[in-house]
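Structure in, sequence out. Go:
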């Protein structure tokens, strides 16, 4: 008896596409100011989860420290990752600055919350060496 095939819940399908795209994102506060406490991190996660939902993306993991946050986002191919990132940073900045004005002003952050830079790394799936071997194995015999 052959093993039963189990569908992978990470693999999604659209009308003309099957995909499984994950990105690891890291956002750092301006001047690496240690602004986050546990309550503020929880609120930041809520805001970013909402933003992801509007992009039909899924925030799979979220965590952070005083001066940065990490996100693992599962997103569809129709989304330009840079647009999602701009929205995540822009919306969270507006809400957090409005809701934690006193805390942010005490740290001298002014009207800017996040550093302009960010880290984005693709993740998930097979290691590149395995993918290369698979593609090489697809060559037609001469």
């Amino acid at each position: 008896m052959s093993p039963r095939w189990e569908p992978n819940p990470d693999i999604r399908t659209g009308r003309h596409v099957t995909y499984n795209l994950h990105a690891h994102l890291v956002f750092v506060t301006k001047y690496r100011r240690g602004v986050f406490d546990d309550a503020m991190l929880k609120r930041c996660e809520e805001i970013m989860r909402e933003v992801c939902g509007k992009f039909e993306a899924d925030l799979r993991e979220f965590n952070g420290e005083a001066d940065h946050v990490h996100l693992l986002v599962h997103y569809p191919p129709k989304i330009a990752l840079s647009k999602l990132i701009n929205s995540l940073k822009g919306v969270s900045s507006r809400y957090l600055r409005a809701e934690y004005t006193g805390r942010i002003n005490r740290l001298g952050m002014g009207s800017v919350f996040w550093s302009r830079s960010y880290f984005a790394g693709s993740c998930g799936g097979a290691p590149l060496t395995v993918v290369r071997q698979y593609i090489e194995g697809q060559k037609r015999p001469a």
